[in-house]
Amino acid sequence: MSAAPCAVVGIGQTKCASTRGDASIGGLVREAVDRALADAEMSMADIDAIVIGKAPDPLEGVMMPELWLADALAAAGKPVFRVHTAGSVGGSTAIVASHLVTGGVHERVLTLAFEKQSDGNAMWALSVPLPFGMPVHAGAGGYFAPHVRSYIRRSGAPPHIGAMVAIKHRLNACRNPYAHLHEPDWTLEKAMESPMLWDPVRFVETCPSSDGAVAMVLGSAAVAAQRRPAPPAWVHATAMRSEPTMFAGRNQVNPLAGRMCADDLWRAAAITTPIDEIDVAEIYVPFAWFEPMWLENLGFCGENEGWRLVDDGQTEMGGRLPVNPSGGVLSSNPIGASGMLRFAEAALQVRGGAGEHQVEGARTALGHAYGGGSQFFAMWVVGADPP
Amino acid sequence: MRDVAIVSFAQTKHVPRTNLSTAELLLPVIGAALAAVELDRHRVDFWCHGSCDYLSGQPFSFVAAVDAIGAWPPIVESHVEADGAFALYEAWVKLQTGEADTAVVFANGKSASGDTRRILTLQLDPYYVAPLWPDAVSLAALQARVALDAGVVTEADMADVVARSRRDAAANPCAVVADADAHEDALLAAPFHAEPLRAHDCPPPTDGAAAVVLAAGDAARDLCERPAWIRGIDHRIDGHDIGRRNLSSVPSARTAAERAGVSGRFDVAELHAPFSHEEVLLRLAMHVEAESFNASGGALCANPIMATGLIRFGEVAARIHRGEAGRGLAHAMSGPCLQQNLVAVLEADA
């Protein structure tokens, strides 16, 4: 049985900031949704179903906020569906929404994701001791720093790679009006002097805490055919994989779930050499060293070679594989929305609608998200041409 | 649409309180659901989990469940922050895409980890309503009062629902509350708990878990002699603001039922109604006629919150599997005062 095609026909996002004090959660979400609907030349009345994603509810203190947001979204009478798969949630949410179209259930699906970190304290919320488990109390940076240390040891990467990745993201972000951090003055020398937060992760190599939201309208081939003049982005393939958090012998630097997810994705998209066939990638990089780590995990290069692509400038704008032209998670991190931002930015690129951070001639793009202890993966490939 | 069926169902023997962890609670239930259809876990194409962080007081609490399903080699898996019935919906959608032929759906909930009555308050508008701390039982009582005043529900109706549920639960070894001799008159003599609700009009605190196996087309026929085919399924939401809803009706349940193809008479109906008046409101909203309602005892006799809705689907399917029913209605809800409703029509092959 072959699935029906699905296209991204509308994209909207908010300006990210450490505190969006001008907007409630509902207002923030509505800002992204209204922009996506305007882009799709639709109103809420045209939407068949809504799929919402966000990271853990304790981050804002609202339990299952989609129930309350039904009012802000004017969703009464519609199906509203909530997804939660840790940091990968933004990606998983877009995938579930796309399945409503490819499965032939709905024609026009609105999907959105958000986080309003200023309404809570994510560091506290992520450090609640488990009744039956060993508390980590480290936050995400402390959790992932050992993985980075291990990567550096295994790969022999020189110490400036993290700083290089970080400043590339910060400079790319200056060309994205929605990015949280606009810091044009970074140099490699300055970045190498940035304070060490979780050895070997420096302050500049760390994502910010952001308020922000993103929304997309997904449609069937019939819906996409009605759209003029903005072209749609076609969903070529989606994939998700999960593995347990910890067990003896688990490869936490290059997790099998990520490799299998990428294999599933490339197979479904009929891509055999990703580095040649993908024009631009939006990869979930919350700490700078994860760019080379995920390049390897995704199969863009061999094991322990990801840092060489970075060192050669191949992942910069104009390189062989521009990674995160938007500035990525390193420049904006509304946690629940961060994955969907990657998916939406990939779609923007193949639509030619990324403005100043557009990769020229981008026809095929990757959107990637991960979550938990590098154990949940969600990915999609979008293209300018129908699948 | 692709033919998809529930082919297996398992649930815990529910208890008011357990010290088992999420993984310990889920492991035997998932094992039982797979064993019943002799399906090896490596042959499961998709896994979907329903649970809620706030019940365990722990962000990412669902991550521990991955340990219960033996996610190695890595699996294709998703999670909803909702009742497991919504995870079943996501799995049904996944099977519709043709990317999977089999799926395991599971859910767990532990009321005893916290004060559910107060925790559910955090579902409300965080700026204007939640700070006043209207709790879940009080909100249900408000809806019951509106329904009584509107004349769509009577106190006798509510007592009938409770008495019948408790008598039926006597035959359900998984229930936490049961009384073969339950009688309406005795129930109506009990004092109010949150007027007009009496204690027996409210669900018992319950810890438990459940799992179902879904399969499409021939895979379903291979696994199960009498699959419970999902002939129609739909979910809808109502607005949230309590002050702007007419609480004596449930429009989202009505729309979902119409879209799921609810009509005619059912052999069985399992409605996710933790409060007695809710069953009456749902029957009216969905225009559902059935030989039996909540023959398991329903949510009034076992309410492992976040698994309760999935259990309604499982109970209907199990009766079809055993040949006790040919056609059933399964319903799950979410949110304060029946805000969100999911409805499915399940049927055996003719």
Task: Describe the SSE topology.
The complex is a heterodimer of chains A (387) and B (350).
Chain A: E1 6-13, H1 25-39, E2 49-53, H2 66-72, E3 80-83, H3 89-102, E4 108-116, H4 122-125, H5 139-155, H6 160-173, H7 188-192, E5 196-198, E6 201-202, E7 211-220, H8 221-225, E8 233-242, H9 256-268, H10 274-277, E9 280-282, H11 290-297, H12 306-311, H13 328-331, H14 335-351, E10 364-371, E11 376-383
Helix pairs in contact in A: 3-14
Chain B: E1 4-11, H1 22-36, E2 46-50, H2 53-56, H3 65-68, E3 77-80, H4 84-96, E4 102-110, H5 116-119, H6 136-150, H7 155-169, H8 184-188, E5 192-194, E6 197-198, E7 207-216, H9 217-223, E8 228-237, H10 251-260, E9 265-270, H11 276-286, E10 289-293, H12 308-321, E11 327-334, E12 340-347
Parallel strand pairs in B: 2-3, 2-4, 9-10, 9-11
Antiparallel strand pairs in B: 1-7, 1-8, 4-7, 5-6, 8-12, 11-12
Helix pairs in contact in B: 4-12, 7-11
What's the average pLDDT of chain B? Answer: 97
Q: Main sheet of chain B: which strands, in order across? A: 3-2-4-7-1-8-12-11-9-10
Secondary-structure class of chain B: alpha/beta
**Distance, first to last CA of chain A:** 15 Å
- Which quaternary structure do these chains form? heterodimer
| Beta strands of chain A, count | 11
- Helical content class of chain A: 25-40%
Write down the overall geometry of chain B: globular
Low-confidence stretches of chain A: none
Query: What structural class is derived from the secondary structure elements of chain A?
Result: alpha/beta
Q: How much strand of chain B? A: 15-25%
Strand content of chain A: 15-25%
Number of contiguous helices of chain B: 12
Question: What is the overall pLDDT average of chain A?
Answer: 95
Shape of chain A: globular
Low-confidence stretches of chain B: none
- Biggest pleated-sheet summary of chain B: 10 strands, mixed
What value does the Rg of chain A take, in angstroms? 19 Å
